[in-house]
């Protein structure tokens, strides 16, 4: 069932089961005895299995905080956070995370960085190593297995981080502006790469970005966050067919979706 | 390649210029050998009495090395404890800082009373001076783990033990080595302080006795051998750093 979620050329069926369930998620931080800082006011939406959902919003709006709540790195102040039918209270072995910075360990080679999640589980057998090598090949880093991160460009490091996030075959991939620090051309290349990878896995992906074009280009659904304290400003079903390629960025439909997201963000009228 | 060649050539040229000026000054101003022997004199004595110098270098080297090794063996685990336990941190860290403010030269005579004229007293002083930079730099390094790596470890549900061994400790290695580089040169100083205060052998002892016999060239030769010993030990730590941290770009000193 999950395998058939992403056949090239077809949109994900609307009938896909619910994978993530968020209801009235609220997050506040105590600044002093009398003042609370409300980061997230009230966020509710569902995540369909195998879907690609972007959280789009202005800087500091709480979207990264929400992603970390979904990943179990932060406890929400209140609300229901369920993934795969279970309440999320801490990180789960079925989650994979990619951050804005590659966060590679400079003392590990590329291959060993990718294997890190499996090493923590004590499973670095031949099958796992093969999978790591296959992933590196998939992102175009074949032959770089024994390089150290310092010897790679920023884009290549981010590819390694992507492989590391995927090596344990997570059911939920959480990505926090992973291409935010890359130049525009590398970024577009990485977006196409991510769509390729996405077509080959059954993972559900939650992707934080502040780029409207990136959110529309990648996603099945764009959840637009308002300024802090965050509520949902718009929930946009992206009707563009997969596989997507760069030409689609110039289509009328794409532009209309960008406009809609822009209006939700209060940028355009 | 040219970069590293420059790093070698310029100091060599600077060294040669100073030596030539020194030699010229001593010859033309007729300076007494007791006050300031010429580089040629020092070189000659270093060579002629190399048996004696080598024999006296052995105890000084061992005192420095053992003191340094002890500082590493005790200092690193202590730093780990201080970083990981709030109680130990509160209890030990202020004491550590306080002991550091005690001049080591001032406690050398007391150490001598405790451990005698032999190797142990020098080793203890070398340990005392080398210990502090190792503890402080290790503790700093363990607390300076990049937040992103800690978050990664947490997102992957790494245990506390795994987080320490696979993330915090390797991330602290550059700090530990910079502490060790300072510590190893301090250890030599500590050993010499010990030999000055009371000893039966060692380069510090030789330096003192040559000085008291107004043998300027031999005292200076002992000084040169001491410097070479310090440099060799420092380079040994640098080599260990290169071997243990092959990922790090070569540091510039």
The CATH topology of the largest domain in chain A is given as Rossmann fold
* Low-confidence runs of at least 5 consecutive residues of chain B: none
Biggest interface: A-B, 22 and 21 residues
| CATH topology term of the largest domain in chain B | MetI-like fold
**CATH homologous superfamily annotation of the largest domain in chain A:** P-loop containing nucleotide triphosphate hydrolases
Say what oligomer this is. Answer: heterodimer
Bulk shape of chain A:
globular
Mind describing the biggest β-sheet of chain A?
10 strands, mixed
The number of helical runs of chain B is 10
CATH architecture of the largest domain in chain B: Orthogonal Bundle
| Ends distance of chain B | 16 Å
Descriptive report:
Helix content of chain A is 31%, strand content 25%. Chain A has seven helices and ten strands. A ten-stranded mixed beta sheet of chain A has the order 5-4-1-2-10-9-3-8-7-6, sandwiched between helices. In chain A, helix 2 (110-120) crosses helix 3 and helix 6 packs across helix 7. The longest helix of chain A is centred in the last third of the chain and has 17 residues, at 184-200. The radius of gyration of chain A is 18 Å and the shape is globular. The model of chain A is unreliable at 1-12 (pLDDT under 50). Chain B is mainly alpha-helical and 253 residues long. Chain B has two domains: 1-31; 38-244, Orthogonal Bundle (MetI-like fold). The longest helix of chain B has 38 residues, at 160-197. Chain B is globular and about 75 Å long. At the A-B interface, helix 2 of A face helix 7 and helix 8 of B.
SSE arrangement:
The complex is a heterodimer of chains A (269) and B (253).
Chain A: E1 18-30, E2 36-48, E3 52-56, H1 63-70, E4 78-83, E5 86-87, E6 95-98, H2 110-120, H3 126-138, H4 154-166, E7 172-176, H5 184-200, E8 204-209, H6 212-218, E9 221-225, E10 230-237, H7 252-265
Parallel strand pairs in A: 2-10, 3-8, 3-9, 6-7, 7-8
Antiparallel strand pairs in A: 1-2, 1-4, 4-5, 9-10
Helix pairs in contact in A: 2-3, 2-4, 6-7
Chain B: H1 2-28, H2 39-48, H3 50-84, H4 86-100, H5 104-115, H6 119-143, H7 147-155, H8 160-197, H9 203-212, H10 216-244
Helix pairs in contact in B: 2-10, 3-4, 3-6, 3-8, 3-9, 3-10, 5-6, 5-8, 6-8, 8-9, 8-10, 9-10
């Amino acid at each position: 069932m999950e395998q058939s979620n992403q056949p090239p050329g077809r949109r994900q069926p609307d009938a896909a089961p619910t994978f993530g369930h968020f209801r009235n998620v609220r997050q506040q931080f105590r600044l002093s005895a009398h003042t609370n800082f409300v980061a997230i006011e009230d966020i509710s939406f569902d995540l369909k299995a195998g879907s690609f959902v972007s959280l789009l919003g202005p800087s500091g709006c709480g979207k990264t905080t929400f992603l970390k709540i979904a990943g179990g790195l932060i406890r929400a102040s209140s609300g229901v956070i369920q993934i795969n039918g279970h309440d999320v209270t801490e990180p789960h072995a079925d989650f994979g995370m990619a951050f804005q910075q590659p966060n590679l360990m400079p003392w590990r080679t590329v291959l060993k960085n990718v294997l890190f999640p499996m090493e923590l589980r004590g499973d670095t057998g031949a099958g796992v190593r093969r999978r790591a090598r296959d992933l590196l090949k998939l992102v175009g880093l074949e032959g770089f297995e024994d390089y150290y991160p310092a010897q790679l460009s920023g884009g290549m490091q981010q590819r390694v981080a992507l492989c590391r996030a995927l090596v344990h075959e997570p059911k939920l991939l959480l990505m926090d502006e992973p291409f935010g620090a890359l130049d525009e051309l590398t970024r577009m290349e990485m977006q196409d790469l991510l769509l390729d990878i996405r077509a080959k896995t059954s993972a559900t992906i939650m992707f934080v970005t502040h780029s409207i074009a990136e959110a529309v280009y990648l996603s099945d659904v764009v959840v637009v966050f308002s300024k802090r304290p965050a509520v949902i400003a718009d929930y946009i079903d992206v009707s563009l067919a997969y596989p997507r390629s760069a030409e689609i960025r110039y289509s009328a439909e794409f532009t209309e979706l960008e406009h809609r997201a822009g209006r939700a963000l209060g940028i355009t009228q | 390649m040219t970069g590293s060649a420059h790093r070698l050539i310029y100091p060599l040229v600077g060294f040669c210029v100073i030596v030539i000026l020194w030699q010229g000054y001593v010859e033309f101003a007729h300076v007494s050998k007791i006050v300031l022997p010429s580089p040629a004199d020092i070189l000659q004595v270093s060579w002629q009495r190399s048996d004696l110098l080598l024999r006296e270098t052995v105890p000084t080297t061992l005192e420095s090395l053992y003191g340094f090794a002890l500082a590493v063996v005790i200092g690193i685990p202590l730093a780990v404890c201080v970083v990981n336990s709030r109680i130990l941190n509160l209890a030990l860290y202020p004491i550590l800082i306080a002991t550091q403010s005690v001049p080591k030269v001032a406690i050398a005579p007391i150490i001598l009373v405790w451990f005698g004229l032999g190797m142990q007293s020098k080793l203890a002083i070398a340990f005392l001076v080398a210990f502090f930079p190792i503890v402080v730099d290790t503790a700093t390094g363990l607390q300076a783990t990049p937040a992103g790596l800690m978050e990664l470890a947490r997102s992957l549900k790494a245990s506390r033990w795994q987080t320490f061994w696979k993330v915090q400790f390797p991330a602290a290695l550059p700090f530990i080595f910079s502490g060790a580089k300072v510590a190893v040169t301090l250890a030599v100083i500590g050993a010499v302080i010990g030999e000055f205060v009371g000893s039966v052998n060692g380069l510090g002892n030789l330096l003192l006795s040559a000085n008291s016999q107004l043998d300027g060239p031999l005292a200076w030769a002992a000084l040169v051998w001491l410097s070479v010993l310090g440099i060799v030990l420092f380079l040994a730590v640098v080599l260990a750093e290169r071997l243990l941290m092959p990922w790090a770009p070569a540091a510039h000193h």
